[in-house]
């Protein structure tokens, strides 16, 4: 390599410095440029050789790279990139173009462990040393060096944030590599990685996003069509543009240069977050020599970014990566350089989880500003469709796509992958797989639920030990039992925290469900209500301590047990998760909604007692106050399903009739849609003959109202 460095130094050309020296006040003498070029080539080739050695290549194998390297360093596209290291403003080297150039020149394949990012990082550092050690070069770059020193002093004032992409990749794998639902067998669960389980869905483009097109339940719409009370043509007119859009595989869309700005919309649990995590893991799981060829995925969970921004921990997205609550920080100056070159894929996950309208507006503005600041960067945003407003991101050039349910083939693909990974016993695997497939095939309700990736995952877990339930509230109940049962299982196997063994009180499934109901109740009763899937540690500890003391545990033991229970619910049960800053949340909002509905159900069961709630209060205080709030829709629907399963039909009838009796105005007809959704939750609809007819009449009447057409605009 030394001979190659000497030969390379003789081949000095002006292309090397054409970018970096174009920004200085006066050019250094030719011999100074040539000397700097020679030293830079020597450093680059030595660092290149180090990468080959670290990849465990023998000396004779390394020697085979001399000819390809000679071609490489003479390339007109490579020279200016290596020369960019002499630009004092350069934060990171364009290693992506270097790696692509190596492939473009069809040079010898590099070993899998070859790390272009590290080579670029150390080469940049060496060239800065060349400038510092040369009196003539220092004179040329004097002003910029002073600014650089000032910047370094500012960073030293705090802890300097590194730009280590290897650590970032490991952080992504650690944080998102495994499914967030724990299997009963922990050793098996460790093998079930999102990377291997992800089944890409289809999406449909929404040229003009109209949320009202999706609000009517499919069953009610189809019933209206079948009865001839709304024509297929009329229904088609309202949904024509959306339905006529062709289905595209979601990976085709996100990998297409045709859509540099996209919003992926979908139902709760539809796989929006899994999609972004998969895209990030697709980069992190690659070999080092391949990773550099891909854009850097920057995954931002917007609920965490919003909280940091609200608490003044960061001002913008770059600062968030520099110092926010992230798995791994990335230096914002280096990141800015990467973004300006368009070598990143920015993934904003969960806009719907920013519930404060003002803060959500700030986040949307941040995303728009970010897209303008870095026009070459691809950006993907995800959100639930319910409550989403498309106008601003539409105007900013974002295309909207609705993620579709898993189709028959995708469901079968998921089930096969799951059982291949989760079961070692072949006979057991076959029996369980066939049982789940049979349940989905024979039950329309389960088949519809199976299109949702979250619910299908729950079904797969539940299918291990028992037949599937036939309604959604029972599915959530059974799914939560599977997760919470993990603690009981580990207690028997001796895997639980040894600190718990010294306490005589056994925390069972019922205790854990009661605790989570109280946590959900506290969240909905808080200042931000159900808008925030968040509870601070102090309040969570108070809930647990009071509950444990109520069971007869002394105050000291209750306080000690509280920390252990939080630890178990977080690390082992995957029900709660830490958001940092002493804040906790349900892992998935579905569990918040389910346990909140359970709390109202239990309070209605206890009507007549101090903590009970009457039917009148259920109507006016629960349904009456929240019927128009989209955040409450799922809670109210789940609650209706629970009530209809356990109480006389008059309870459900009175609640739905209460919704139908509400005054209808131009802006407020959401009570009708909620009534239809609640009707869909009833266990035995055949006994609600009069209610069914009244509901259908009410929905049919929408088409004749003079404002009905405007509602669907």
UniProtKB/TrEMBL annotation:
Sequence ranges assigned to domain NACHT in this UniProt record: 260-384
Top-level taxon: Bacteria
InterPro entries: NACHT_NTPase, NNH2, P-loop_NTPase
Pfam families according to UniProt: NACHT (PF05729), NNH2 (PF22734)
Listed name of the protein: Putative NTPase (NACHT family)
Organism of derivation: Microcystis panniformis FACHB-1757
């Amino acid at each position: 390599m030394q001979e190659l460095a000497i030969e390379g130094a003789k081949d000095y050309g002006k292309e090397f410095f054409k970018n970096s020296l174009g920004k200085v006040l006066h050019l250094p003498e030719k011999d100074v440029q040539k000397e700097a070029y020679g030293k830079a080539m020597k450093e680059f080739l030595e660092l290149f050789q180090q990468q080959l050695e670290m990849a465990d290549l023998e000396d004779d194998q390394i020697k085979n790279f001399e000819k390809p390297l000679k071609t490489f360093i003479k390339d007109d596209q490579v020279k200016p990139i290596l020369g960019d290291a002499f630009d004092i403003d350069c934060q990171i080297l364009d290693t992506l173009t270097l790696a692509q150039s190596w492939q473009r020149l069809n040079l010898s394949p590099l070993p899998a462990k070859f790390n272009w990012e590290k080579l670029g990082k150390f080469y940049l550092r060496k060239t800065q040393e060349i400038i510092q050690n040369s009196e003539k070069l220092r004179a040329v770059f004097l002003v910029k060096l002073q600014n650089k020193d000032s910047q370094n002093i500012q960073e030293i004032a705090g802890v300097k944030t590194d730009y280590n992409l290897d650590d970032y990749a490991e952080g992504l794998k650690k944080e998102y590599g495994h499914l967030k639902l724990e299997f009963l067998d922990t050793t098996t669960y460790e093998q079930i990685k999102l990377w291997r389980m992800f089944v890409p869905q289809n999406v449909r483009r929404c040229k003009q996003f109209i949320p009202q097109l999706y609000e009517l339940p499919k069953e009610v719409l189809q019933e209206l069509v079948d009865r001839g009370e709304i024509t297929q043509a009329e229904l088609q007119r309202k949904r024509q543009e959306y339905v006529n859009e062709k289905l595209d595989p979601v990976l085709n869309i996100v990998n297409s240069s045709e859509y540099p700005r996209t919003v992926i919309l979908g139902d709760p649990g539809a796989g929006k977050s899994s999609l972004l995590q998969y895209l990030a893991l697709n980069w992190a799981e690659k070999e080092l020599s391949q990773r550099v060829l891909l854009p850097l995925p920057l995954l931002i969970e917007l609920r965490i970014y919003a909280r940091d921004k609200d608490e003044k921990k960061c001002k913008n997205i770059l600062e968030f990566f520099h110092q926010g609550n992230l798995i791994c920080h990335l230096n914002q100056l280096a990141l800015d350089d990467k973004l300006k070159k368009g070598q990143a894929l920015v993934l904003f996950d969960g806009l719907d989880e920013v519930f404060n309208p003002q803060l959500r507006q700030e986040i949307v503005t941040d995303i728009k500003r970010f897209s303008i600041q870095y026009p070459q960067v691809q950006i993907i945003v995800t959100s639930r469709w319910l409550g989403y407003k498309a106008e601003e991101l539409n105007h900013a050039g974002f295309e909207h796509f609705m993620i579709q349910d898993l189709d028959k083939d995708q469901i079968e693909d998921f089930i096969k992958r799951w059982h291949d990974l989760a079961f070692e016993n072949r006979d057991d695997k076959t029996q369980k797989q066939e049982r789940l497939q049979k349940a989905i095939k024979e039950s329309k309700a389960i088949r519809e639920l199976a299109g949702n990736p979250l619910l299908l995952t729950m079904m797969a877990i539940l299918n291990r030990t028992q037949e599937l339930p036939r309604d959604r509230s029972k599915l959530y109940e059974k799914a939560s039992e599977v997760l919470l049962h993990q603690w009981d299982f580990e207690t028997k196997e001796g895997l639980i925290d040894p600190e718990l063994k010294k306490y005589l009180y056994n925390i069972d499934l019922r205790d854990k469900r009661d605790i989570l109901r109280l946590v959900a109740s506290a969240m909905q009763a808080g200042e931000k209500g159900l808008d925030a899937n968040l509870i601070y540690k102090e309040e969570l500890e108070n809930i647990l301590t009071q509950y444990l003391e109520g069971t007869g545990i002394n105050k000291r033991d209750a306080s000690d047990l509280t920390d252990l229970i939080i630890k178990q619910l977080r690390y082992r049960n995957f029900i709660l998760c830490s958001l940092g800053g002493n804040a906790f949340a349900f892992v998935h909002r579905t569990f918040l909604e389910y346990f909140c509905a359970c709390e109202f159900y239990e309070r209605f069961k206890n009507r007549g007692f101090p903590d009970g709630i009457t039917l009148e209060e259920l109507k006016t205080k629960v349904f009456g106050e929240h019927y128009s709030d989209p955040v409450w829709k799922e809670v109210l629907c789940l609650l209706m399903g629970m009530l209809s399963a356990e109480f006389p039909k008059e309870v459900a009838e009175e609640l739905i009739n209460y919704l139908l009796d509400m005054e209808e105005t131009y802006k407020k007809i959401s009570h009708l849609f909620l009534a239809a959704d609640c009707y869909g939750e009833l266990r035995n609809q055949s006994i609600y003959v009069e209610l069914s007819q009244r509901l259908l009449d009410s929905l049919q009447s929408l088409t004749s109202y003079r404002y009905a057409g405007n509602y669907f605009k």
